[in-house]
Amino acid sequence: MNGHKFDKLAADAVEFWRELKTGDVRDLFQTGTGNSVVQLFRYALVGGSTFLVDYVLLFVLTRAGVATVPAAGTAFAVGITCNFLLTKFFAFKSVDPLVGGAGEVAIFVFISAVGLGLTMALMHLFTDVAGLHVMVSKLVSSIIVFLWNFLGRKLILYPGKRRNGHA
Question: What is the pTM of this model?
């Protein structure tokens, strides 16, 4: 990371903590921002919300008698749709995507598919090769894939061009 990017990230972190410390959290939730730390905070909320949608829908569908694989597929599809909308209109709401329309959706799905592939590979590596408990493997792989998803969206899909013309 070059000096300018590190300085910007450090300034973003200071601004984020100042807002938390003063209790003025309005900017953390309402206004558009190019602050990477605020975007990461928002994306963590998006990820948690998406997980809950996916998990609850899977529970409801399987309790209603839907077979596990179709229920999981449906829950994943609804979860990724929620993730797309929350990412676009909350986490990165002031940042124009690299491409618009179908291209934006395609890149979003591609990043998500890579994340799914990483999850599967890491679960195999941590559980089958390293011998970790499956839930420990899931926790570690989830953190790694969360970072991939955030950075993929931040650097590839929403690289920083603000709608008001400021980077």
Answer: 0.78
